[in-house]
Amino acid sequence: MQFMELVENSFFNGLLEFGLLTLAIYAASLAVLFVTGSVISKLNLRHPDRKIQQRQPSIREIDDIKSSVRQLVVTSLCLSAGLFSQYQGWVLIEPVELSWWSFPLFFLISVLLHDTWFYWGHRLLHTKTFYRFHSPHHRSVTPTVWSNDAGHAVDTLFAHSYYALIVFILPIPALALLAHRLFDQISAAVGHCGYEHFASFTARKPWPLLCTVFHDQHHQYFLYNYGNYFSVWDRLLGTVHPTYDTRVKEFERIYPGKNGG
Known about the structure:
This protein has ten helices and no strands. By secondary structure, the chain is mainly α. It has one domain (10-37, 50-252).
């Protein structure tokens, strides 16, 4: 009887800890969503000449915000599951101790792995079988800074179940994983903002980095530019939009002091 009570107490204590962790991550995610969205929206208003598509957004901002608030619950559960698994010692390899070298190294490794995860998951979502889960996100043909997290729960799981699973194969320090998730949310908001503020020669061939035009063209043309942080997979497999590099050059010219490399 005492053993069963111990098991029950342990289970409910664990459930409570998981719930509190998820709540904290969700609250932080909401804060990042609204702070990032507000800052970039003000930046957009200051630079109307940097608008990528001339058409107006097809989805009301309030609808994207409501959807994003819901989908961040799914994202928070995924990240919480990964961190909680580490904390409980359920992972195959203990996370590397946090240090001056382990943080940037595992942050970079995780970003590279997630880009691969995202590319192939994104391609899968564009197949006939799964597109019904991705189509709500593509209602935004002209995306805004609030569009990134908007969509279907299954769509969100395709991208963000990574955070729940990666801890079982990569001994990433918890803080590095949290930093990756923060970077992911901010960079994705920039990628959906509809205005090009970061075009440079590093965002076009032969460099692997991206700017906002990359994902904006994915929403505009649907069957191109599937990558998340890099263009490597798209370039290797021929899924970069034919005009992407040219469009980046066009936006480079409007930035004072930039010559395009």
